[in-house]
Amino acid sequence: MSESIHHQVARSRLAEALRVLRLDSGHSGEQLAAALGWSQSKVSKIERARTRPSVRDAESWARVCEADAAALARVSELAEAALVEARHWRVVHRGGLASVQREIGAVEGRAALVRSFQPALVPGLLQTAEYARQVLKLADVSGRGDVPAAVAERLKRQEALYREGSRFEFVITEAALRWHAEDLVALVPQFDRLLSLGTLPNVRIQVLPLDASSGQVQSHGFLLYEESEEPRVIVETYTREIVLTDSDEVLSYRTIHQRFVERALSETESRDFLQALRRRIDGRS
């Protein structure tokens, strides 16, 4: 995803602050790496702002360099700002809804594994054109009006599902499956789409029924992209998009997703559940 100016500045300032601490302490890059138990390339990438250290790593760096309390606090603040990006939707949508879909598609193209939890609606990678149209119409809070182009880009993103070498793990709640924006009729072809995509060998779709013990508060949905360079979690709120890259936070979301996976229906049971729900919805529409 494209970065906000604030986020870019924080990354740059953090890299510079850590580099200055190292130089002032008299450590070479190799010496600092050895003291921290890292590779020298990790130190180099951090100083060039190519890798964002976790808050814990940044603080460890500062302590090895014998930073004073003020410098340590500054490094912690910059690391936090560099690892958590929150952009208002009017900023995210500045280039249009279609542009946002292309940005997300680029992230998905780099990810070897995408983990998704959705308690509110069917994930974008699994949506039919009509379902996507209804969702994106609601999402156009900035009034861009390019919903048809955004739908086309969202459907293009779905080509990633057929790409070798990438895996997708979806956990969708029963409540999300029952949600509809405009017309209940749109759910029937949407269920057919889920049943079809669920047959792909690299796609796992599991349903978390309402009567299941979830083991975790379902406070919001999220996408976890497992990229080799920088895994990230994307969370969408009513007003902002939040991108998390802190390694500890990413690990927490991996753990949360696994809890949902373990409590959700198996893939076979999920197919049976979807087919039964499809029949009930079809009978009412």
Account of the protein in words:
With 285 residues, the chain is of the alpha/beta class. It has two domains: 5-83, lambda repressor-like DNA-binding domains (434 Repressor (Amino-terminal Domain)); 96-284, Endonuclease Chain A (Endonuclease, Chain A). Helices cover 54% and strands 14% of the residues. The chain contains 13 helices and seven strands. It has helices at 5-25, 29-36, 40-47, 55-64, 69-83, 89-92, 97-110, 129-139, 147-157, 174-178, 187-197, 247-263, 267-284, and strands at 84-88, 113-118, 167-173, 203-208, 222-226, 232-236, 240-244. It has a seven-stranded mixed sheet, sandwiched between helices. Strand 5 and strand 6 (232-236) form a beta hairpin. The longest helix is centred in the first third of the chain and has 21 residues, at 5-25. The radius of gyration is 22 Å and the shape is elongated.
